[in-house]
TrEMBL record:
Record InterPro entries: Cupredoxin, Phytocyanin-like, Phytocyanin_dom
GO MF entries: electron transfer activity
Record-annotated Phytocyanin domain positions: 26-115
Protein's name according to its UniProt entry: Phytocyanin domain-containing protein
Record-linked PANTHER family: BLUE COPPER PROTEIN, OS07G0570600 PROTEIN
Keyword Disulfide bond: yes
Signal peptide range in chain numbering: 1-25
Keywords: Disulfide bond, Glycoprotein, Signal
Keyword Membrane set for record: no
Organism: Spirodela intermedia
Cited Gene3D superfamilies: Cupredoxins - blue copper proteins
């Protein structure tokens, strides 16, 4: 018969791993020092994202001029079609994500990623 201390070990390890993953969460400023705006190159945000390593629990910070731009999370289909009419209001299970500025999606002020 196993002792109660040895049966608690897997639970303890799980708690430590869970706590450590939260401690490792990173915050990314989208585009580094460039504010969320129409980029000089259509691939600017794609190139920026390809240099990053994102993980579940990380945060993306979008710095933008209030009133000039906004950030919408959209489905893969809406991203591909530059559709801004039905943005995602809350996070759902992991999957492909994208963002648009509602006034300028065709001008490459958009970004996609996978969770």
């Amino acid at each position: 018969m196993a002792s109660s201390s040895s049966s608690a070990l897997p639970f303890f390890i799980l708690v430590v791993v869970y706590a450590a993953t939260g401690a490792l969460a990173a915050t990314f400023e989208v585009g580094d020092n460039q504010i969320w705006s129409i980029p000089s190159s259509p691939s600017y945000y794609t190139d920026w994202a390809s240099r990053q390593t994102f993980a579940v629990g990380d945060s993306l910070v979008f710095n933008f001029n209030n009133g000039a731009h906004d950030v919408l999370e959209v489905t893969r289909a809406n991203y591909d079609d530059c559709t801004t009419s039905n943005p995602i209001a809350t996070y759902t299970p992991p999957g492909h994500r994208g963002t648009h500025c509602s006034g300028h999606p065709i001008l490459h002020l958009r970004r996609q990623w996978s969770l």
